[in-house]
Design a protein that fits this description.
It holds the Pfam family 2OG-FeII_Oxy_3. The chain is mostly beta strands. It has strands at about 5-10, 15-25, 30, 40-50, 55, 55-60, 60-65, 70-75, 80, 85, 90-99.
Length: about 100
């Protein structure tokens, strides 16, 4: 049984969105691109809580990665995914900026 991802929108505007997301045990995110209609998309993900096992973020190319905790990348250009969370939860504070 896989629990649902819980997303809380902290800020939503034309150019900047901020989310607090909880990924539960058993969840994974398959390889994908984040499509946008116009412009460039940048994401800064801050991993607040890492799962005990699994749940690693994998991206074709990061602009910045600090120990897998603070990651800046272009989700519209580079395929990314999150491996299956085998034990624990993954909490993420995500900033999405469209330029």
């Amino acid at each position: 049984m896989t629990a649902n991802v819980k997303t809380r929108i902290l800020l939503r505007s034309k150019r900047l969105n901020i989310y607090l997301v909880r990924y539960p045990e058993g969840h994974k995110v398959g390889p994908h691109l984040d499509m946008i209609a116009k412009g460039r998309l940048y994401k800064l993900n801050c991993v607040l809580v890492k799962p005990k096992v699994g749940g690693e973020f994998v991206c074709e190319r990061n602009l910045f990665n600090l120990a897998g905790r603070v990651i800046l990348f272009r989700p519209d250009l580079y395929q990314h995914r999150v491996e299956k969370i085998k034990r624990g939860n993954r909490w993420l504070l995500s900033f999405a900026l469209t330029v």
